[in-house]
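quick one, two chains, predict together pls
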Amino acid sequence: MLGGPTSLIPHDDINQHRHETWIGVDHGTVYLLDQDIIPVIAVGDYDSLVAAERQQIEKQIKDIRYAQAEKDFTDSQMAALTAFADLKATQVNIFGATGGRIDHELVNLFMMTDPRFQDWLQQVTIIDCFNQITFYPSGNYQLPYQAGYQYLAFANLTPVKNLTLRQVKYELTDFSADNPVSWSSNEFLKDQPARFNFTAGIVAVILSHD
Amino acid sequence: MLGGPTSLIPHDDINQHRHETWIGVDHGTVYLLDQDIIPVIAVGDYDSLVAAERQQIEKQIKDIRYAQAEKDFTDSQMAALTAFADLKATQVNIFGATGGRIDHELVNLFMMTDPRFQDWLQQVTIIDCFNQITFYPSGNYQLPYQAGYQYLAFANLTPVKNLTLRQVKYELTDFSADNPVSWSSNEFLKDQPARFNFTAGIVAVILSHD
């Protein structure tokens, strides 16, 4: 749980996940404690927290890792790294990653394009009230039909080669470019999986609803 | 004015700009009319609008351009193109571009990396309640100190070469990478301009506050 605006956190989802293993990042840790979820690890510099919030964290959480402002990894990268390397996570769902400050949001969106995170590229999902984002390296994919999401988008976050979209409302064939593009407002065909493939780059798949 | 969540639109700013030339895009057109601002042009497919809203637009706006769902340009790209090519704008401020659906937000953020928009790269600013985003091609820049923004970030939206940051809290020297990175949470030095330069790529500068 990162420290993004709480208005974008899907509270029902959090409740369903409450018995899983949580890592709190900065103000996200306070949010978790407020929901009676005690993260196994807290990460951050806690700069933006008031004294009472810091005390609450220090009292309730055993493993607190203090990040430094000038460092190789951002708080959210450090949290993801901790999840995979220390907790041996096979799937990491990231909440509180979107909205508010766009520099922070882009840190989280671009994180999975960092070569240091390539091993875990397909094990991360960013989730908020409107969006569910997953990441793919080059390859050939079939995405199961998801009834709850009206819109389906593909965004090459890096240069991409031969991006092809099939079994979707708007098909695309062999798109290559050096600049990122968000192919927005596409849609699943009813009850059919979407298919996509590309030969180089990293593509984010964004499922969303209004 | 694009159709993003109105909660992120800085209403005071809009009021200050009310006598400028406006283009409304989809639901952004309704927002403008609600503020008693009549855009000179409306662009969109108006799919998401109710009949009363469509009628209001048709009654009040002389130049209405109907975009098609399957097309070379998104609504927001078409609006920017219209501003530059038809209205000969020298500066375009984009509101309603952030929040809500991330596929839409990325369309707007990535738009200025499109080769077709390179001539106008430095004439666009994306503005919401928390952020002000501008775009730069390779070169050597000096950014005036801005007291109102606590945070200063640099994000290479494309591959970048030799990105160097000077006269900022956290300096960076000759960073090159093929993946995008959001260098977040940097800060101006008091009363000093920030300096940055790079030799290839497109960099977004994000000024933000909490």
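Residues 75-86 of chain B form the longest helix (12 residues).
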